[in-house]
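Hi everyone,

Forwarding the result from last night's run.
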Amino acid sequence: MPLQKDTTLMEQPEIVDFVPTQDPQEVKKEILRELLAEKKSIPSKFFYDSKGSALFEEITRLKEYYPTSSEKYIIRKDGKSIFREAKPGSITELGSGDASKISIALSRLAQNGQKQVRYQAVDISRSAVENSIEALKTTFPAIKTRGIIMDFTNHLDLLQPADDELFCFFGSTLGNFSRHEAVRFLCNLRNVMKPDNHLLLGLDMVKNRDILERAYNDASGITAAFNFNILNHINRIIQSDFRKQDFNHLAFYNDKKERIEMHLQAGHNIQVNSPHFDQTLNIHKGERILTEYSHKYSEKRIERMLNSAGFSLKKSYTDANGYFRLLLLVPSE
């Protein structure tokens, strides 16, 4: 009778935390610099504390929020083709979230006959990394998983890809960067990648204004709650006293710049205090705090961006409506 595997002795997934290497004072300075500027903003990465991450996962299940359903459709439809092209032995997912997309991808990989693969979940949120690994552990027990907690927008140099690495950057997260920052990020990633590595990149395409604005102004108010929660997060970091009830959620499409803009708009004159402010921060009625850009892409803009960043397009995949695009990219020679 064959021996049964003792699951109590199975190796636990490794989780590496690079966030403590960041100076807490620098994080505070970054928040203060943006809040005290003439045009106030809060970097969107501060959405993702544990509550913010949970709220975002709720957003991805909303009927109005088409990017997630569109992207999952593409992965289901074209996943086998993607993996035949990329032939990964190792997968690194930047911004791992709830692992729902990578789970679909791994099932398609298995359909190609490949059972063994290494997987790294990379996210700034510890809960997102832990949830991703936990979700994959039971469904794909043969996969060796590893978690990396880090701000991958600034510290890609900490990654050490395998020769057969596939980087996955789902969800149109790249659209949250400015156009210049997006190119710089892709350049940095390209410099980390090895010659035979691939990048699977999700991009939200330019489309009808009504479709775009409904996606960021859902009827149930989950996106608004997600927007307000960023105030709770920075309150903990800089000991400020922002109150969500003093603001309105504002999200609209800027045609000229081809992007959704998300703001917190003051409902009345507000005074905010923090021991890190030299004086009380005054925010006037109607004044906006920018919390996120979500840039959309046209074919021409994609081509310019890839040329600037040093990537070549190997294959392009889209959904039935053409709302979303998954690009399989390789470093240019």
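The chain has a mean pLDDT of 92.

Cheers,
N.
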